[in-house]
Amino acid sequence: MANELTAEGVAILATAAGVHLDAATAARVARTVSPTVGRFSAPDIVVPFEVEPATFVVVQHRDARR
Amino acid sequence: MTDPTMLSLSELVTALGDRTISSVEVTQALLKRIEVWQAALNAFVAVDTEEALLAARQADTTSGARRGALHGVPLAHKDMYYRAGKPASCGSKIRAGWIAPATSTAVTRLEAAGSFRLGALHMAEFAYGPTGHNTHLGHAHNPWDRSRITGGSSSGSGAAVAARLIPAALGSDTGGSIRLPAHFCGVSGLKPTSGRVSRANAMPLSYTLDTVGPLARTAQDCGLIMSLIAGSDPLDPTTCGAPPWNPGTAERSPRGLTIGVPTGFYVDELDRDVAAALDEALETFRGLGARLVKVDLPDQTAVSAAALIVIAVEATSIHAPWLRTRAEDYGPQVRARLENGLAYSGVQYLEALRWRGPALEAHLAALGDVDVVVAPVARSAAPTLAETDVGAEGGAAIQTLTSFTRPINYLGLPALVVPAGRTPQGLPIGLQLIGRPFGDEVLIALGRAFQVATDYHQGAPPTP
């Protein structure tokens, strides 16, 4: 599966964040996180081009005024 | 005289106002009960006996001048609400002995209304766990069965309110941390709409998903606390523009409300007792004059995945300095969760944040004219501490506990838990009433009506 993380990939991301993970921990993280990454990359999740994080507040307040 | 520990917060407020009971009598009764229960529950991390009695005496001697709606009421909150000059360990070894430099806005508002601090309540380490396990300070125990979890992360709040050690408490909810203890311990609890209550000077876990709310015996009590803590705060920009609390709506009749009954995700694979409690509650709502309709919500597994990404990255970002230098000082479950947050890319995190608006829009479109969705909090009543003591390798098993709560944080919606049933073993079952954005008051109104028609919120656990 294209979105399956590898222990090596996780270790590189962790090192970039300044945290050392041993090989077993990196493998455990890859196993744990892969299903979430896979689900969020599925084609039914589409983020429109113009949307930013604060769009959430706009939607929230629009419904409150209904 | 009625045992003051058995009064709900609203009843206590009335009794103190009438002067049929004094604040000192209430405080002494609560302290005595804490002495009996604390060893069994581990609900408190601090009890401020002398300071509380002094505050109670002062409340009793003010000649008729009440400070506010909570005049003379002792309260205790999750040990992540800072109070200037007091320690706030946040359930951790890392912050043991740390003294807060300022007081949280929510506590400031409750104390401005006349309440005072009785102590501080236990919690999962850094509020990052749904069970109530705590390897540093000992696990919290469920008052209905000490071998079972309280739920977390507001473990002490759930246990203390259920055991009548305190009439109400603040919890926090980032993925279910108010609702799970309310469900497992048999109390009421409100996770407010995102932006409704200031998070200023409360310990952060996830800037996007954190919410501050009450646990209490009744929906009415939750409404009373919300009426005092909700509202704009310049120290928390997410509260700007939120509507003020509307006490009239919180007392409205449920007649004419449209209740959505979810299909699929929230009702598949429920334990029989939870399914039966849901069916019974729906009939109660129908009897109260609400209209019931089926509602087909968007895929909640996608919403849940987005929530997991946001909370994981934000929590890891907040803890990164300690993760680099003191990783061994975290408990194994919390350290494992923080390490998981290292695996997401910046692009994935921002996509998860950007999708929040469209996801809420899709949810609201699916609701149509539905005012409230009624759903389980979890698939079962409280599991045992042993069953959920999974260490670093059991992340997926623990994640299932928050399956029904986590999506609601991502969507920023309010959700009120009310006790709605019992298993044959006597364990509480709660249901969550999920509202529309800023529809917190409607939930309180519906919860109040439900608790007039039912008595699942009334029972107290047997004294150990």
Summarize the structure.
Chain A is mainly α and 66 residues long.
Features:
heterodimer; A: 66 residues; mainly alpha; 3 helices; elongated; B: 464 residues; alpha/beta; Amidase signature (AS) enzymes; 3-stranded mixed β-sheet; 15 helices; 11 strands; 37% helix
Please summarize the sheet with the most strands of chain B: 8 strands, mixed
Q: Assess the beta-strand content of chain A as a share of residues.
A: under 5%
CATH classification, class level of chain B: Alpha Beta
Alpha carbon gap, first and last residue of chain B: 23 Å
Question: What would you give as the CATH superfamily of chain B?
Answer: Amidase signature (AS) domain
What best-fitting shape of chain B do the alpha-carbon axes yield?
A: globular
Distance between the termini of chain A: 43 Å
The CATH topology of chain B, please?
A: Amidase signature (AS) enzymes
Determine the oligomeric state from the structure. heterodimer
What's the rounded overall pLDDT mean of chain B? 96
Question: Count of DSSP helices of chain A?
Answer: 3
Poorly predicted residue ranges of chain A: none
Q: Average pLDDT of chain A, to the nearest integer? A: 92
Q: Please state the overall shape of chain A, judged from the principal axes of the Cα atoms.
A: elongated
Largest sheet of chain A: none
- The parts of chain B where pLDDT drops under 50 for at least 5 residues are none
Chain pair sharing the greatest interface: A-B, 38 and 49 residues
Percent of residues in helices of chain A comes to: 55-70%
What does the radius of gyration of chain B come to? 20 Å
* Second rung of CATH, namely the architecture of chain B: Alpha-Beta Complex
Q: What is the total number of structural domains of chain B? A: 1
